[in-house]
Specification:
The chain contains 14 helices and 22 strands. The mean pLDDT is 95. 32% of the residues lie in helices and 23% in strands. It is globular and about 85 Å long. It is of the alpha/beta class. The strands form five sheets. The chain has a nine-stranded mixed sheet with strand order 1-2-3-13-4-14-20-16-18, sandwiched between helices. Strands 8-7-10-5-6-9 form a six-stranded antiparallel sheet, with helices on one face. Strands 11-12-22 form a three-stranded antiparallel sheet.
């Protein structure tokens, strides 16, 4: 009996076993899981675009006492430990800071996520008429499977800038009394040629045209009567003209709201889990802390799905420029040395989703090294494609550091990578953060059906990711 006990103790000690979160939490924590996810669903529904997400992030931050850096600069006061500041990057990105007791030169604890998701963008000259139907032309954004976007109710979100400079915010299709939009598909009775094509060729990019109307304007002298009628409706509702489409950012996204999935309501089906689930959990984590030794930063960036480019992507200088202002307010003067040291001495989690194992497509995964739905926050040492191309590849010391934090705080965690070695791959903002010399590790929520119009996460993983991020800050 003693020998058997020793073996059992040894097994517990030397074997690495992942755990199902639901098995590791009590009734009280289970209630907290469901409570947090109700708030998460509300966050998703209010932020279906990058602009809407940043608006909601700043709103929640201000409710928790965060002040804009412009307000701090106007007050002409020095920053002190415990102060909470946010910086808005063109309404498409943001950085939240909680100033720590330690000098910022010693580094920061940074969690960076992205708030853009795959979608369909309207082209600059989108509206046309064909065969007594009006359509809008689109250009897909990010890595999508085009066939997933047809025969689906879509909502139109975004902004239009009129000639006068007036900004019009647009959201059509979210309420049940509003119209939705739609991309037609070919009936199976006539789809012999379509069905013989590959999935990638069955629906083309130029075929993703949005059906928007069919009533002609009653005037025999107008050529495209249905197109004209759509423009008339838009002019009467918003005061916009056709040329205003040139100065617009309009996005088609799935019209359905975030919904519970399963008889047990254990999962959330929604548009935009990638990467708003990590944005939400890192936001909640930083909003729920008060005093920290090390300055805490929640970073929200745009354009990750198309390479982190542009002036709102992680490749831009927004974060470094914002940090310069923070150092100025801390030191009373600009000091490039402190800015550089604070970056290189920092520790960061690249908060992005992981590929959850799907038994329906088991051939794409290597089961020993993949994340599973319901088994907690996922550490991803490297991303990239095939030979780790384009990834960060965190070092052992930092992986161990993060693992130790999770173990110390009873965070249910697992490790994973993006499928089989030669199956494909992808990237995150981790390598961009790492350019400053800081330690960086990818770490986030496992997702099923990633980049589909509707993705799936476990409520338990959302909860554990929030707890993990909060422990990292503290």
């Amino acid at each position: 009996m003693e020998d058997k006990l020793d073996i059992n103790e040894l097994k517990d000690k030397i074997l690495f076993n992942t755990n199902n979160v639901w098995d590791k939490i009590d009734k009280e924590e289970t209630e907290e899981v469901f409570k947090i996810n109700e708030d998460y669903k509300e966050f998703l529904d209010k932020g279906k675009t990058e602009r809407e997400s940043i608006k909601e992030i700043i709103k929640r931050a201000e409710e928790k006492g965060f002040k804009s850096i412009e307000e701090i600069l106007k007050e002409n006061t020095r920053l002190l430990p415990g102060d909470k500041i946010y910086i808005n990057n063109k309404d498409k990105g943001a950085a939240l800071f909680v100033i720590g007791k330690n000098h910022i030169e010693k580094g920061m604890n940074i969690i960076g996520s992205h708030i853009d998701s795959p979608r369909l963008d309207l082209k600059q000259n989108p509206l046309y008429e064909d065969s007594d139907l009006a359509f809008l032309k689109t250009h897909y954004y990010g890595g999508v499977k085009k066939y997933q976007w047809v025969a689906l109710p879509l909502a139109l979100h975004g902004i239009i800038l009129k000639k006068s400079g007036e900004r019009i915010d647009v959201s059509i299709g979210e309420d049940h009394d509003e119209p939705v939009f739609y991309i037609t598909d070919l009936l199976p009775h006539l789809a012999k040629d379509q069905m013989s094509k590959t999935l990638s060729d069955g629906i083309t990019g130029e075929g993703l045209n949005i059906l928007v109307g069919s009533i002609p304007f009653n005037d025999k002298d107008i050529k495209d009567k249905i197109k004209f009628n759509i423009l008339k409706i838009l002019y009467e509702k918003y005061g916009i003209i056709e040329e205003d489409f040139i100065a617009a950012e309009l996005e088609l996204v799935p019209a359905e709201k975030a919904r519970d999935l399963g008889f047990d309501r254990s999962m959330v089906m929604a548009y935009g889990h990638d990467d708003r689930v990590c944005a939400y959990t890192s936001l909640k984590a930083i909003l729920d802390i008060e005093e920290v030794d090390t300055t805490a930063v929640a970073l929200f960036v745009d354009k990750e799905e198309i390479g982190s480019v542009g002036n709102t992507g992680m490749e831009a200088a927004f974060f470094e420029n914002g940090l310069m202002e923070i150092v100025n307010l801390l030191e009373g003067e600009y000091n490039l040395s402190i800015v550089k040291k604070s970056l290189s001495n920092s520790k960061a989690l690249s908060a992005d989703v992981a590929a959850g194992y799907d038994p329906n497509y088991s051939d794409a995964y290597e089961k020993l090294n993949t994340a599973f739905i319901g088994k907690g926050i996922t550490i991803v040492k490297y991303t990239g494609s095939r030979g780790k191309g384009g990834c960060n590849d965190a070092n052992s010391e930092f992986v161990n550091y993060v693992r130790s934090i999770f173990n110390k705080n009873n965070i249910v965690w697992q490790s994973g990578e993006l499928g089989k070695v030669d199956q494909g791959g992808g990237g995150t903002i981790a390598y961009i953060l790492a350019r400053h010399g800081m330690e960086v590790l990818d770490c986030g929520v496992p997702v099923l059906s990633m980049h589909a119009p509707y993705e799936v996460v476990s409520k338990a993983d959302v909860y554990m990711t929030y707890k993990g991020y909060k422990a990292f800050y503290c």
